[in-house]
Every structure is written in C-alpha cells, then in structure tokens.
Amino acid sequence: TNAAELTVRQTLFPLFLVTILYFLWGFAYGLLDTLNKHFQNTLHITRARSSGLQGAYFGAYPLASLGYGNWVLRHYGFRAVFIMGLILYGIGAFLMWPAALKERRVHLTTPRDKVFGGFCAATFVIGSGLGCLETAANPYMAITGPPQYAEIRVNVAQAVQAIGTVVGPVLGSYVFF
C-alpha cells in the first residue's frame, strides 16, 4: 500500500513508533552537556577538551546521513535505515559501559585520555545511529498518511524530540550522576 493513501487511523501506530525515535535522539542530544560537565569534574579535563564529545556526536552526522544512511535508504528503504540506526545507537550505548568501567578505575591504572577517548568513540557510534535515523525519519513522517497533514506530523514528532532534549539532562543529572 502506498503510504500516502493510508488513513489517519492506519498511520497512528507506525507514526507513534517513529516518534519514539525522535524522543531517543532528543534524549541523546540532551545528555551531551550533562556528560561534558561530568567528564570535566571526574576526569579533570578542560572544557575545550570535553567538547570532543560534541565533535564526535556531530561529526558522525554528516558521515551517517549523507553517506551510508542515505545509500541504505535509497537501496533498501526506510525499515533498513531504521534498523541500522537503532543497531548503531545500541552499539554506541553498549560501548559506553566499558568506558564507564574504566572511568571507575581511572585513579588506579588507566590514563584519563584513554577513558575519555572511549567515551568519544561511543558517542561517535551513537551519533552515527542517530544520523541514520534522522535521514529516514523526517521523510517517513512527511509521506506516511494524508498529504495535507504532513507538516503537522513532522512538527509533532519534532516537538517530541524537544521533550527528549529536556528530559535527557534532567534525568541524566538526577539519576545517572
């Protein structure tokens, strides 16, 4: 079935699922500043050095969205890009765990640069996954459902992304750190 021919009711569930992706990338983006401050305090690195997290996160976006995310979208479709983006996001999140374990032992054996480099690498993988998701999510929201509601669908999803951007640092500062 052509996605534009679906009724509003038929589009609710798939659009709800994609809107969750918007929340996830807003949440991840919101955590960046909280992570920066945490690394400055625990690893005793400068603000300039901690900006490596933003560099890793946003450096991955053009590679993912213009590079392989776009290629996968053209050759395999939305589902493949969503799956690839979520897998990359998940791998990046799991890579945070060994870096966090090293952070706890930083005072014993591991140099601070290696620990922070691990977090930057994990953040790059997360940014790659989110870049893939963003490559597919906006066009998917626009074409799924009646065309006269395309702007509303995209705006609602981006509002959910903004909510994730607010929830990320709040949850990060109170629960994680």
In short:
85% of the residues lie in helices and 0% in strands. It has helices spanning 8-42, 47-50, 52-76, 78-104, 112-143, 150-176.
Description:
This protein has a domain at 56-172: Growth Hormone, Chain: A, CATH 1.20.1250.20. The chain is 85% helix and 0% strand. It has 6 helices and no strands. It has helices at 8-42, 47-50, 52-76, 78-104, 112-143, 150-176. α4 packs antiparallel against α5 (112-143). The longest helix is centred in the N-terminal third of the chain and has 35 residues, at 8-42. The chain is elongated and about 55 Å long. The model has no long low-confidence stretch (mean pLDDT 88). It is found in: Cell inner membrane. Keywords: Cell membrane, Membrane, Transmembrane, Transmembrane helix. Residues 14-177 form the Major facilitator superfamily (MFS) profile domain. It is a multi-pass membrane protein.
CATH topology of the domain at 56-172: Growth Hormone, Chain: A
- CATH class value of the domain at 56-172: Mainly Alpha
Number of helices: 6
Rounded to the nearest angstrom, the distance between the terminal CA atoms is 47 Å
| Class inferred from helices and paired strands | mainly alpha
Biggest sheet: strands, sense, closure? none
Fraction of helical residues? over 70%
Write the H/E string, N to C. HHHHHH
Subcellular location: Cell inner membrane
Pfam family, one: MFS_1
Keywords: Cell membrane, Membrane, Transmembrane, Transmembrane helix
Transmembrane segments: 12-32, 53-71, 77-97
